[in-house]
Amino acid sequence: MRITEQMNQRKPFVSLEFFPPKEREAWPDFFKEADKLKAAKPLFASVTYGAGGSTQDNTLEIASRLKAQTGFEPLVHLTTVGASEKKIGDFLNQLRDNDLDNVLALRGDPPRGMTDFKPDNERFQHATDLIDFVRQRHPDMGLGAATYPEAHPQSPSFAKDLYWSKVKAERGAGFFITQLFFDPRLYFDHVERLKGMGVDVPVVPGVLPIMSLQSIRFILTMCGASIPGKFYLELEEAHEKGGNAAVRELGIRFATEQSRRLIEGGAPGVHLYTLNKADACLEIVDNLNLA
User: Where are the alpha helices (DSSP H) in the chain?
Assistant: First the structure.
């Protein structure tokens, strides 16, 4: 079932994001965490794959198993890195053969060790190229895209970044999921600017529960998001007093309040970046009474 149709039937909702482990020996623990998250009753669960297009085959198998074993509606990531018409076409056909009806079209991150993104070919250079291809080959497929409340790190300006989000919607993206952020005002401003440009598709805010200082430092360097200075100082103080356990408690409390403000302000739901850990997400969902 297309995710946009599900969104019309249920608001507010929670959705989840998984980053499947590369090593098969880690899969049993991964599926145990996923099974726990059935209690959250997510509207859908996005499934990523590694930078440079690595582990794409794992993504297909894991998404199929998530749907069969947990009942989640998978949203399978699709990137331009290492892409060709045959490879993308075959992958989309495999998705349909496995009853997987939704993809998230992304430009993708460069392979590990590379700092700059360089397209592999002329056909697939941007997420919009993927959107065009999916719409041509599988017009009935559910199709989402990314949007950036703080602009993509490589965008020359906020205006240009908004323009490309508009193009994604015009080409056929039925909904957006945002990059993670920590100030709800960024989300509401972003949505209003998109609406002012005639973009009126659902925009699902991405929320990250912070589990440790080390993890958030690494994630921020990867995605280019900012964190409010006061909140970061509170995280450092919590770490000094109680280590990662105190940081985790503060992170969950902040993510809960952030999610509440977003939903009360009109967001259709929240997309929780799980980091493949169930307990934190379940606490947030319980606190919000969303399940």
Answer: 3-9, 27-36, 56-70, 85-97, 127-137, 158-171, 184-196, 213-223, 229-264, 278-288
- Phi–psi pair at 3, nearest 5 degrees: -65, -35
Amino acid 81 reads: V
Cis amide linkage into residue 202, ω under 30° from 0: no
Residues 117 and 15: their CA atoms lie apart, in Å, by: 29
Among the listed residues 3, 1, 39, the one whose alpha carbon sits nearest the alpha carbon of residue 269: 3
Q: Is 17 an annotated catalytic residue?
A: yes
CA distance 39 to 120: 41
123-169: per-residue pLDDT in tens?
777 899 999 999 999 999 999 999 999 978 788 888 999 999 999 99
What's the pLDDT score for residue 82? 73
- CA 263 from chain centre, in angstroms, equals 17
Predicted local distance difference test score (pLDDT) of residue 113: 52
* Cβ pair 42, 288 in contact under 8 A: no
Residue 7's SS3 state is: helix
Could you tell me if 77 and 49 are in contact, meaning their C-beta atoms sit under 8 angstroms apart?
Answer: yes
- The catalytically annotated residue of 5, 17, 192, 257 is 17
Q: What is the pLDDT of residue 229?
A: 92
DSSP secondary structure letter of residue 197: T
Evaluate if residue 220 carries a pLDDT over 90.
no
Question: What mean pLDDT is reported for the chain?
Answer: 90
Range of the domain at 186: 3-288
Give the chain's domain count. 1
- CATH code assigned at 196: 3.20.20.220
Can you read off the two tokens belonging to residue 226?
């900012």
